[in-house]
Amino acid sequence: MTTIDFNAANNQEGISGGATFLPPVPPPTKTETLDIDTAKNRFAEYEAKIEEMLIKANSFEVVDDKTNIQAVEFATGTKRLFNEIEKLRKAITDEPRNFTSAINNFAKVYTARLKKIENIFKSQISSYAHKIEMKRRDDERKAQKEAEELQAKINEEAKEKKIEPVHVPDPVLKAKPEPTRTESGSASVRKSWKWKEVDMSNVPREYLMLDTVKINKAVRAGARNIPGLEIYEESTTVLRT
What we know:
Elements: H1 6-10, H2 36-44, H3 47-58, H4 65-161, E1 180-181, E2 186-187, H5 212-220
């Protein structure tokens, strides 16, 4: 591993102190904010510098105080460039984003009302479909029961006459309803199983989840021994520019 003069690496010719990697980026014009190729060109000037920084970062190793200081200089310089690119990104996207947001909010005035109307009809369609399905199931149970009763009667008569009983064919059941189709579209009812909490004390352990928010709060407050958990200290580097 080699060590590098990061002050030299971070400074561009004519710029002292490593404060910026490239000259300040002027705000985009209205035309630029909506042209993808122009926007790409605005970012392209960073490509060579980032590739150079990546190569140097992969070849660097912190072994003493001097190289640690150099690493901090390079890391914070990297963060400054990151912030610069983010600033450019936001400058390019702010105007179209604000326009899009305004249109979205305006359109929601209408779509929210239409969604309410849609839900009213969907509720009525679902209720009717449920009613039809319950009747179909009831008819199915009745037909099955009648077939079983008839089979039992035939079996009893055959037993008395000491002959082989005739097998009653299974009842012909109604098919489940097809989607309702119209010229403008169709509607079908989809069934799915749902659940709701009734008694948490009876819920099997494998379906329970740790309250990470509560645990984090306890650890920050000083908890160091929670049964079933390992609490450990981890070092994280924070960069400020």
